[in-house]
Amino acid sequence: MPLFDYRCGCGMRFERLQSSWHAPDPLCPACGAGVRRLPGSVALTGAARPPAGPDGAPTSWEGTGRGNREYVAEWRRTLERRQRLAESYPELSTKRDAVAAHEGRFERAPLTYRELADRASASGDATQAAAEAARDRRKETPPAGE
Question: Tens digits of per-residue pLDDT, 54-82?
Fold first, then answer.
């Protein structure tokens, strides 16, 4: 049986169990007048959280529990669940570009192959493009200790 909230013109508010959605509204218990059905309040408990994505996955041998097979397999299953969910909900998808360099100047902002190709498109020289990217990162990243 559904539980409905009601309000009367006299200010009385009350709840009543009804036999169905189509059952007639009761009269006000305080004054006997007709009442108005209110939208029911919703109680939300708990939370829905998608599985961890690639950004949360371990990225090093030490991060995988030193190569623990069960841990790696569980992460693979988690990432597969996330991928299946992202197929239905594109807002959960994570764009991942292949990384060309991730050490030194590129530690905080990795150099992707896409960026390298864009930079090298004018000169045709990937080595020169990588050096330019490193110079740009040097300008963006303050020295340690600041």
Answer: 888 887 888 888 889 999 999 999 999 99
Domain ranges of the chain: 3-38, 54-92, 99-140
pLDDT beyond 70 at 118: yes
Q: Residue 83 to residues 26, 48, 65, 96: CA-CA distances in angstroms? A: 51, 16, 23, 12
Interhelix angle 126-140/113-123, rounded to 10 degrees, is 120
Backbone phi and psi for residue 112, each to the nearest 5 degrees, phi listed first: -90, 160
**How long a stretch of residues is the chain?**
146
Assess contact for 130 and 101: CB atoms under 8 A: yes
SS3 123: helix
| pLDDT exceeds cutoff 60 at 11 | yes
